[in-house]
Amino acid sequence: MWSLHPQYLDRQGLLGCWRESLLAQAVLAGRTKGYRAHPQLQRFSAQAEPLVALAAYLAGLADEGDRRGYHLDRTRIIESPPGSVGFMTVTREQLLFEAGHLRAKLIERSPGAAAAFAGLDEHQIEPHPSFRIVEGPIAPWERAAG
């Protein structure tokens, strides 16, 4: 699950993020016992309404899918985010860490997407629409933080 705007993800990344986010939703809704220890769940579990926050995240992915002509089934989103969902935060360092990780993945599997993404400077990189950038270090739940 990326803090980066889904416009930067290649097809595999966008569809994988959609699937992983649906699984996270199932965990938060108590519909599955697996995946509960995944560190990415911390960011959603910390929200006042975790399922609503995750619904907003999924909606952002579905919007990007629509833009690309994919059909990401919005009926699979459990909660309908109200018109004004509070934003989650992501630190600039976390966003830059993820950008580096995504660049490496794109170079391997989607050179065209990698080239487009490589041209961005660090202040041009946008977060997923459900996040707002704040200053700070890489998230403590991130594997590289330990």
From TrEMBL:
Source taxon at top rank: Bacteria
- Name of this protein: Pyrimidine dimer DNA glycosylase /DNA-(Apurinic or apyrimidinic site) lyase
Q: Which Pfam families match?
A: Pyr_excise
